[in-house]
Write a structure and sequence with these properties.
161 residues, alpha+beta, seven-stranded antiparallel sheet, 3 helices
Length: 161
């Protein structure tokens, strides 16, 4: 018989590994950060999550990734431009008896919503997600200007421009 403390330790190890939303976006899971280099001193940075996090948490994670990119590329400051937020909803329903999956996705905010509906059988269990993403064009420099963030301050938890 295994020790309860060993089992608890094992479970907590795996649960803590899954709890962070800050990681590179990988595969089909709509969560994490990604970036595309647009120019020498300009990147498009995106952060997304399906856990319904507050917008301030999502924006803080976007700034965190922008600050990391700044330091990796030897820049000290950055500014966020063309900030875009997007919110959508996804409902997944599953019937284990027939192995049928039903998915309804609604993407967009307000009147500009697109729907994808695929329904086969009545559901057995359901999962509902709030998909949120934020994207910005990030400009980098080594000369501090008004309304710029200092990369080291962002990573230290001081997020004022």
């Amino acid at each position: 018989m295994k020790s309860p403390s060993l089992i608890l330790l094992f479970c907590s190890y795996f649960l803590t590994g899954c709890s962070s939303i800050y990681h590179p976006q990988q595969g089909w899971v709509p969560e994490g950060y990604s970036e595309t280099k647009l120019e020498e001193k300009k990147y498009s940075v995106t952060f997304q999550t399906y856990r319904g996090e507050d917008w301030t948490v999502i924006e803080d994670n976007l700034k965190r990734r922008a600050a990391q990119i700044a330091l990796i590329n030897a820049f000290s400051h950055f500014s966020l431009g063309e900030l875009k937020r997007n919110e959508g909803y996804e409902f997944n329903e599953y019937n284990p008896t027939t192995h049928a999956m039903s998915t309804v996705s609604v993407i967009g905010v307000g009147r500009n919503q697109n729907s994808i509906i695929h329904i086969e059988t009545p559901p057995y269990s359901a999962m509902h997600y709030i998909l949120r993403s934020i994207n910005a064009v990030v400009s980098y420099s080594n000369n501090p200007e008004t309304d710029q963030f200092e990369a080291e301050n962002i990573l230290a938890g001081l997020d004022t421009p």
